[in-house]
């Protein structure tokens, strides 16, 4: 059992202000942080304040013209960029850099010896492409940190994305890369945003075979979700043997979340987290878990709590948690 829970988080994430009816709003982190301060998690949590991501590293992933356009749109008081769902405010550009910086700081912490870190960040990142915002995402937090980890420390990274939606941005950024393996498990893209992530999308050139998409049928449930980890992902983890693992931890696959129809329960998230923990112990690589989606404010903090407890090998205090 790990006795510490390092969390990289800034209270300033709330200054990415979206309208109250927008599903990706500051309340998401408010309820998560409140939960992290309760029970056994509250006894072991240790918060680290992030620094903004350096522009030179953000530019490794994002086109400079997009970054300039994004900054200008915020400073001019525009209310969205690249589509109405991507709501922005005056501070969004700055806060997006802070979210990406949190994941970079997590990389620094694991390079100093931490084994598991959680980054509850917003705005989320996995839909952001190098040249555009998409699906509430502006900067691809995980891709920026993975690139940083890869280039600064020469590490081979695996990214497992269990958000209910395909992480098109992460996939495209590493599509021709054989040093960053992207795995996504998501709802059938023929019926689901953003429409990418078919099983035949497997990488290109040197990166061929280093992208694995596992689309699940609508109404799947825990059994199919968990089986995919055991039958399809585990052999790839054993073969690739990453130096580090990043989880794109979205919780919108939960049965009570309106954004998807995968019918996963909190027990399902606990099970896959236990599987990832067993890999971490067996192969001795550090794991960084980064929040992506998850919009039901009632259930999101419980999903996060069961995920963290399973990753840390902590028994649930309350049977209701599972
Ligand atoms: Zn999602």
UniProtKB/TrEMBL annotation:
GO molecular function: histone deacetylase activity
Superkingdom field: Bacteria
Histone deacetylase domain mapped to chain residues: 22-311
Any matching Pfam family: Hist_deacetyl
Entries under CDD domains matching the protein: HDAC_classII
Gene Ontology biological process terms, A to Z: epigenetic regulation of gene expression
Family according to the record: Belongs to the histone deacetylase family.
Record's protein name: Histone deacetylase superfamily
């Amino acid at each position: 059992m790990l006795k510490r829970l390092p969390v990289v988080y800034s209270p300033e994430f709330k200054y990415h202000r979206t309208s109250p009816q927008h599903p990706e709003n500051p309340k998401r982190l408010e309820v998560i942080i409140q939960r992290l301060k309760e029970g056994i998690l509250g006894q072991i949590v240790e918060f680290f304040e992030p620094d903004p991501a350096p522009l030179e590293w953000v530019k490794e992933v994002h086109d400079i013209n997009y970054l300039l356009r994004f900054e200008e749109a915020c400073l001019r008081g525009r209310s969205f960029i690249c589509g109405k769902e991507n709501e922005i405010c005056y501070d969004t550009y700055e806060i997006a850099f802070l979210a990406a910086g949190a994941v970079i700081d997590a990389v620094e912490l694991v390079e100093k010896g931490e084994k598991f870190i959680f980054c509850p960040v917003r705005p989320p990142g996995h839909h952001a492409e190098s040249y555009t915002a998409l699906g509430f995402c502006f900067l691809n937090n995980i891709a920026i940190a993975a690139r940083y980890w890869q280039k600064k420390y020469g590490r081979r990274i695996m990214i497992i994305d269990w958000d209910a939606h395909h992480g098109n941005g992460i996939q495209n950024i590493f599509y021709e890369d054989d040093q960053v393996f992207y795995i996504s498990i998501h709802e059938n893209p023929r019926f689901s945003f953003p429409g990418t992530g078919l099983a035949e999308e497997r990488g290109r050139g040197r990166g061929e075979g280093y992208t694995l998409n596992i689309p699940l049928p609508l109404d799947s449930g825990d059994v199919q979700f968990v089986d995919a980890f055991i039958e399809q992902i585990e052999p790839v983890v054993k073969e690739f043997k990453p130096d580090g693992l990043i989880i794109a931890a979205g919780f919108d696959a939960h049965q009570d979340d309106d954004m998807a129809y995968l019918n996963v329960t909190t027990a399902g998230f606990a099970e896959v987290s236990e599987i990832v923990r067993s890999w971490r112990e067996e192969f001795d690589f550090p794991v960084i878990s980064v929040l992506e989606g998850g919009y039901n404010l009632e259930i999101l903090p419980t999903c996060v709590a069961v995920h963290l407890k399973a990753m840390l090998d902590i028994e649930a205090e309350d049977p209701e948690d599972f």
